[in-house]
Amino acid sequence: MIEITDYKSLLAVGRQQSEPQRFLFVFLQALLPDDHNDEDKERFHSGQGGQLQAIMCVDKDLDQLSNFNDLVIESKQMEQEWSMVLIACLSGVNGLPPTSEQAEEPLKMMVQAVQNGGDLSKYLAFDRQGDLLHFS
Q1: Closest Cα to residue 65, out of 10, 107, 104?
Q2: pLDDT tens string 47-87
Q3: Is residue 98 helix, strand or coil?
Q4: Cα dihedral across residues 7, 23, 105, 82: positive or negative
């Protein structure tokens, strides 16, 4: 069993699954809320706190994914600044990979979790440099 410590190990674990995987990506931007105070602002500028906003999402088959740098390059084509990406996997059934249509509802649920300030700990998250993040 491979421990997921980075994007490369995430893809390796995806390849080891008994059913084909579709990866779900929700790109987020950290913003300073309108009703912030000085303490919030100070924490935000030190890399803590803030409010997360989903700015784009995409689903991909495992064979469409190579490395984190390629993901960053592809995201730049969308001309959206993001600070972290949430990732989840959707398993296929009977050897058939999930379709993009089947990924729509889980992607919507991920975006809603962000919008509602829900629990994001069930997703993997990486910053723009590809470092694995942990929610506390």
Answers
A1: 10
A2: 777 788 999 999 999 999 999 999 999 888 888 889 999 99
A3: coil
A4: positive
